Amino acid sequence: MPGDIHTYELWIATLACVGGFISTLEWISNRRQLKNDGLFSWAVFETRGVVVKPEPLERLLNGLVQYCPFLGLLVLRLAAMLCLPVALWLGHGSTAVLIIVFGSSLLMHFRCPFGMDGSDQMLTQIFGALLLGNLSGSDLGHRAALWFIGAQACLSYFTSGMAKAVSPHWRDGKVVFAIFNTRTYGYEPVARLLKNKPGVTKSLGRGAVLMECIFPASMLVGFPACLIFIAWGVAFHIMNAVVMGLNSFFWSFVATYPAVLYCSVVISVWLQPLIHRLPFALFGPA
């Protein structure tokens, strides 16, 4: 049976909170850039001409994204990240904490539309789905949240894989070496190891493309076969964290795996009667 849906939610929230905590600490450590003379100055970003209605909401948002209020919000977000797994475990206060976490996520996207990557977007969707599930107050709402998170993970991998698949540079492995040979996302020992090894880089590139494209099958193959995809995802993101420094991607995407596991287990339960009846349908009674 699928098990307690709240256990799956607790695992998702805990893993996502680790990633969110790290990401928020990075914002606070770079707070100098949020000042009016910094790289991410609101005095510059507000010239984007984004229209917010009604006007009172616009004034509220403009007030919250100023340096001091926004820094205070980031500190509050850190505290909320620490409290959320505890609140879910105790079964009290999780909705209020999720409102803070999700609301601060949206405000961070509004405050700094540049420099936010896929891991931040995934975390926002995870916390948003958990919040809606909690607000529903029903098992159906909680299940829908898990299905949304699992489906979003599959969609993210599939679109990423398809985008790579149409590129000849990914298929011939040139992109793999090029990434590892950069200063931003590269790692010199790995770049030296892969240099002049087109067969290895081609295998790595095609392997990543293939697994990303077929990752949606993780929810269709049932349990325990789905663990193969989950194990690949964990290994893939650990490698990216160590070699490319994409530590936030590890936590945000691995946080979706309990939902993928839940959906796969549910599908296994659904398919069991069909599998048991299949020999009878094909060959008739023994």
Q: Give the total of beta strands.
A: 0
Strand residues, percent: under 5%
What letter string, H or E per element, gives the SSE order? HHHHHHHHHHHHHH
Arithmetic mean of pLDDT:
86
The low-confidence parts are: 278-283
Q: Separation of termini?
A: 29 Å
What structural class do helix, strand and pairing data support? mainly alpha
What is this structure's SSE topology?
Layout: H1 5-29, H2 42-45, H3 55-64, H4 67-90, H5 94-111, H6 118-136, H7 139-165, H8 168-171, H9 174-180, H10 188-194, H11 198-214, H12 226-244, H13 247-254, H14 257-283
Describe what you observe in this structure.
By secondary structure, the protein is an all-alpha fold. 76% of the residues lie in helices and 0% in strands. The protein is built from 14 helices and no strands. It has helices at 5-29, 42-45, 55-64, 67-90, 94-111, 118-136, 139-165, 168-171, 174-180, 188-194, 198-214, 226-244, 247-254, 257-283. Helix 4 runs antiparallel to helix 5 and helix 6 runs antiparallel to helix 7. The chain is globular. The two termini are 29 Å apart.
